[in-house]
Automatic annotation (TrEMBL):
Localization per Swiss-Prot or TrEMBL: Cytoplasm
Species of provenance: Gordonia sihwensis NBRC 108236
Top EC class of this enzyme: transferase
Protein name: tRNA-specific 2-thiouridylase MnmA
HAMAP family cross-referenced by the UniProt entry: tRNA_thiouridyl_MnmA (MF_00144)
Phylogenetic placement of the source organism: Bacteria, Bacillati, Actinomycetota, Actinomycetes, Mycobacteriales
Catalytic reaction annotation: S-sulfanyl-L-cysteinyl-[protein] + uridine(34) in tRNA + AH2 + ATP = 2-thiouridine(34) in tRNA + L-cysteinyl-[protein] + A + AMP + diphosphate + H(+)
Length: 363
């Protein structure tokens, strides 16, 4: 097969490309330039798409003996990922930009160009597995990225390759060292790639501006503090609320609600965060077939943690196909804008992704 290997400049994508070469495929490497003004160097383990990353990817491709190109996707990335991220926070949501990047950049814009150029598959360094066209968790549970890949539909998955998903990360680094790849010890990227400072609130504030509002106690209605914008808060947040005095019972307060229209941020007790049902839009069923009725599953509502047994039912929402998820155990910290990813409920198939939807509400 002709395989396009997306090479970020990190160790995972370099080894993924190497394994595709070993498998006998005709491999071409490509690095995505996603920043309109890339820095020369990475900031430790923060950020990506620097000129250093592009150079690291090129050196890996040279070592593997494969052609290498840099494709400029900066404008598309800004429109489909960064602008959407800012707008989502302004609307009181808590988006995960990796979901949008996978859905709209790597497995849409990039994959579409790859197909147009005659490639059969797109290989990436994501930690996930594909078996008979089904998306599954990676062997390395700590590195598993099936949650942020669950937005991919059946057709997109049919053109995907995840060569490192069957191997724990330490062994990937050892393999890279054996192969002589200079990125073997390169730090992993953390946080949001386009906010190298790690200060999300400052990044959003510079783009959204000041939109004053109040922090209000959910039980008493008391106005506890003022804030500069709802973009500085997320459901379940405990710190940085600007509240001077503790609650009457001495227990911590958490963000339990965000109203972008009035600018009101509601805080309450930890128990107020518990939800028993979730509604989600933009439904994707990994098999390509919408279930005829309710499906037993385990739902995950955050990239790390937030799992509970549930029953998911396909529904028709105001914006198209959606999912209603009735939880068998309450969950906390369920935020609009995140993904609700459905996994098979049994121990044998529990790593199998069934479907996904973007959280629009909870009860």
């Amino acid at each position: 097969m002709r395989v396009l290997a997306a090479m970020s400049g990190g160790v995972d994508s370099a080894v993924a490309a190497a394994r595709a070469v070993d498998a006998g495929h005709e491999v071409v490497g490509v690095h995505l330039a996603l920043s309109t003004a890339p820095g020369a160097l990475r900031t430790g383990s923060r950020g990506c798409c620097s000129r250093e990353d592009a150079d690291d990817a090129r050196r890996a491709a040279d070592l593997l003996g494969i052609p290498f190109y840099v494709w400029d996707f900066a404008d598309r990335f800004k429109e489909d990922v960064i602008d959407e991220f800012v707008a989502s926070y302004a609307a009181g949501e808590t988006p995960n930009p990796c979901l949008s990047c996978n859905e709209k950049i790597k497995f849409a814009a990039l994959a579409e160009r790859a197909v147009a150029l005659g490639f059969d598959a797109l290989a990436t360094g994501h930690y996930a597995r594909l078996a008979d066209g089904e998306l599954r968790r990676a062997v390395d549970a700590d590195k598993d990225q099936s949650y942020v890949l669950a937005v991919l539909d059946h057709e997109q998955l049919s053109r995907a390759m995840f060569p490192v998903g069957d191997t724990p990360k330490p062994q990937i680094r050892e393999e890279a060292e054996r192969r002589g790849l200079a990125v073997a010890d390169k730090p992993d990227s953390h946080d949001i790639c386009f906010i190298p400072s790690g200060d999300t609130r400052a990044f959003l504030g510079a783009r959204i501006g000041v939109r004053p509002g109040a922090v209000v106690d959910s039980a008493t209605g008391e106005r506890l503090a003022e804030h500069d914008g709802v973009h500085g808060f997320t459901i379940g947040q405990r710190k940085g609320l600007g509240i001077e005095a503790p609650a009457a019972d001495g227990r911590p307060r958490y963000v339990t609600g965000i109203d972008p229209e009035s600018g009101t941020v509601t805080v309450g007790a930890a128990a107020d965060l518990e939800v028993t049902a979730i509604t989600a839009g933009k439904a994707v069923w990994t098999s390509g077939r919408t279930p005829d009725g309710p499906v037993e599953c385990v739902v995950q509502v955050r990239a790390h943690g937030g799992l509970a047994p549930a029953v998911a039912t396909p529904v028709e929402g105001p914006d198209g196909p959606g999912i209603r998820i009735d939880l068998r155990e309450p969950l906390r910290g369920v935020a609009r804008g995140q993904a609700a990813v459905l996994y098979a409920p049994d121990e044998v198939e529990g790593d199998l992704v069934i479907g996904c939807g973007r959280i629009t509400g909870s009860e």
